[in-house]
Amino acid sequence: MTNLIALTRGVPASESFAIDALIGCAEQALKRYGTTILQYHPPRGFMPLREAIASQENVPVEQVMLGNGSIQLLDLLIRTTLHPGDAVLVERPTYDRTIRTFRNAGCQVHGIAMEQDGPNLHELEKALKRHQPRMLYVIPDFQNPTGATMSAIKREAVMALAASYRTIVIADLPYRPLRYWGEDEPSLDDCGDATLIRMSSFSKLISPGLRVGWMVAPESFIDDMSTLAGSAYICPSMVPEGMVFEFLRQGLMEPALVELKALYGPRLRACLEALNRHLPEAQWVKPEGGFFLGVTLPEGVDAGDVQQRARMEGVILSDGEDFYPDGDGSRFVRIPFCGVNERDMDTAITGIARAVRSLS
Ligand SMILES: Cc1ncc(COP(=O)(O)O)c(C=O)c1O
Question: What is the pTM of this model?
C-alpha cells in the first residue's frame, strides 16, 4: 500500500500557514513591543491583543483573558469554578479533549444527543432537571466533530433553559469565522440572558503552534483564573501574542480568511459530493463551514470494524467512541476534510465505502 490518507486529526492544512506574513509580524512585534513581550507579564496576556478582542466581542477588556490556546483557558475555568463530582453537560458527540479536561477535574460528564441543528432540546431539559449541571459546553458553529450548526431557534431555547436552571453556558467558537457558504446564525449572546462564557482561538485562523487562545467571561471568573494562572505558569507565552496582535493591526486577518475559505470550501464540497456518490447508505451532517463532517454508518455497521478495514484501503480514521462521553459512538466516523485535497478526499471516501460494503 502506498500513500495512506489520514483522516485522523483536525489540524489546519500546512499550506494554510502565512509564513512570510508571520515572519514580518514577528519582526514588527519584537521591534515595537520587544521590551514588553520578552519580559514576564501579568497572567491575562498582552494588553493590545486583549483590547482588540474586547472590541471585537463588544465587552470591557477586564472580561478578556488570553492563554496558551483556548483549551488551557477552559482548563483554568474548570479548575477555578467546578469541584470533583460536579455534573456538566456536553453535546454528544463533542470535542474529545473537552471531555478529558472535564474528567481530569473529576466532573461527571453527561451527553446531549446532537441533531442536524444542534442539541436535542427534550434531552437537554431532562438532563438539566436530573443532573443540575454547573456548566453546559457547546460548539454552536460547525461543531467538532459533527459539523452541525445550532439553529437560531435552538440558540434561544438553549439560553432560556440554561438561564432557568442557572447553568453556565460555555460557547467554544473556533470555527465560527470559517463559513464557506450560507448565512451566520445569531451569536449566543444575542439569544438570551444565561451566564455565557465564550472561548476561541487563533489556532484555526493563523496557526495552532502559536498557541494563542482567548476567553470572554464575567470579571469574577477572569480574576480567579488569572490568580491560578499566575501561580501555575506566571504568564502565557507573550511573543506569539505580540505576533497575533501585529497580524490584526496590519489588517492581515481579512485576506487570510478569504484564503482559508478558498482552500477549505472546495474541500468540504468535494467531501459532500464524494459521500453522495460513494456512500449514500450512510447519514451525515451537511456543514457549511469549519473543519469536520460527522458520518453515521448504516445500522449494523461498526465504526471500529470500518476503521480496521479502511486502513487496508489506505485510509486512517480516528476512533469515533472518543467523541462520546458515554460510549455511544459505535457507528460514528469523523471526517476532518480540512487537511485533505479534493482528489485524495474522493479516494478516501471510496476506500471508506468499500470498507463499509465489505461489512454490510
Ligand atoms: C472545539 C475546539 N475547541 C478547542 C480546540 C483547541 O483549540 P486551541 O488550539 O485554541 O487550544 C479545538 C481544536 O481542535 C477544537 O476543535
Answer: 0.97
| Distance between Cα 260 and ligand 1 center (Å) | 17
The ranges of the chain annotated as CATH 3.90.1150.10 are 5-16+254-359
- Residues contacting ligand 1 via CB (< 6 Å): 10, 69-71, 95, 139, 144, 172, 174, 201, 203, 208, 213
CATH of 19-249, one of 2.60.120.10, 3.40.920.10, 3.90.780.10, 3.40.640.10: 3.40.640.10
- Which amino acid residue places its CA nearest to atom 16 of ligand 1? 144
Residue listed under C-alpha cell 466533530: 145
Distance CA 349, CA 335 (A): 9
User: Among the atoms of ligand 1, which is closest to the Cα of residue 70?
Assistant: 10
pLDDT 10s digits, 192-247: 999 999 999 999 999 999 999 999 999 999 999 999 999 999 999 999 999 999 99
What is the end-to-end Cα distance of the chain in Å, rounded?
24
CA distances from 263 to 158, 267, 288, 325 (A): 33, 7, 14, 32
Q: Give the distance (Å) from ligand 1 centre to CA of residue 1.
A: 32
- Side-chain-side CA neighbours of 85 within 13 Å: the count stands at 0
List alpha helices for 133-278, DSSP H.
Answer: 152-164, 219-233, 238-249, 253-278
Cα 360 to ligand 1 centroid, rounded to whole Å: 35
β-strand 135-138 against 118-119: which pairing, if any?
Answer: unpaired
C-alpha 176 – ligand 1 centre gap (Å): 12
